[in-house]
Amino acid sequence: MSSAYVIRTPENVTFEFELAGVASRALAWLIDVLVMFVLIATAIQVLGSFMPVAGGLAAAVILVAVFLVQWWYTALLEWLWGGQTIGKRIVGLRTLSERGVRIDFTQSVVRNLVRIVDLLPAVYLTGGVSALLDPHQREVALAIPGVADALGAALDPLFVGSAIAAGLTLLTVLAHPRDVREHSDSLAPAK
Q: I need a surface site. Which of 25, 46, 181, 191 has the fewest CB within 10 A?
């Protein structure tokens, strides 16, 4: 299997991109799943507080928020951030078109709609087998719209650690809001 993706232009100029392996893509995906979980948990916590007042409307808005996060988080971030999601940015990956340029909106949407095939029958099995068999290590969602994940510069580990600490703090606050309010008086400066 090739770990490089070579593009030759009509002017006979060659560009070479190092392809991301299955492990680095899996790590980026796990980070993105964690981010989506935090976004969904935040939406449920915030919108759920309107349940006593709005009832079914609040529940419907929660379902819409969950749908938007699950189906549009990756597509919109890859399109807006030049082929990167938060997980890919942390790991140092970027999705590029077969021509070596950033993916467009249509490629991003098609790639993320087809991603459901990679998840079948469970736990990314189809995508993993496809990545192992494809000469460019692409899962089905990468192969259909003509894109590939290439390696780039990873983020600074200090930034990553700070981001993880902030995320864990947010999860703690969301999971125990009453405890935070009860202890906030003890954190206030003395008068």
A: 191
In this structure, are residues 156 and 23 in contact, taking their beta carbons and an 8 Å threshold? no
Contact (CB, 8 A) for 146 and 114: no
pLDDT in tens, 18-75: 878 778 888 998 999 999 999 999 999 888 888 888 888 988 999 999 999 988 999 9
DSSP state of 153: P
Q: What is the pTM of this model?
A: 0.71
What does the alpha-carbon distance between residue 6 and residue 37 come to, in Å, rounded to a whole number?
A: 36
- Answer for the pair 97, 108: CB distance below 8 angstroms, yes or no: no
User: Chain centroid to CA 178: how far?
Assistant: 30
Query: How far is residue 28 from each of residues 25, 89, 173, 184, 189, measured CA to CA in Å?
Result: 5, 8, 25, 35, 41
Paired tokens of 21: 């392996």
Residue 96 β-bridge partners: 102, 148
* Phi, psi (rounded to 5 degrees) for 2: -85, 140
pLDDT digits (tens, 9 = 90+) for 126-137: 777 777 777 766
Cα–Cα distance for residue pair 159/89, rounded to 1 Å = 11
Q: Alpha carbon 83 to chain centroid distance?
A: 11
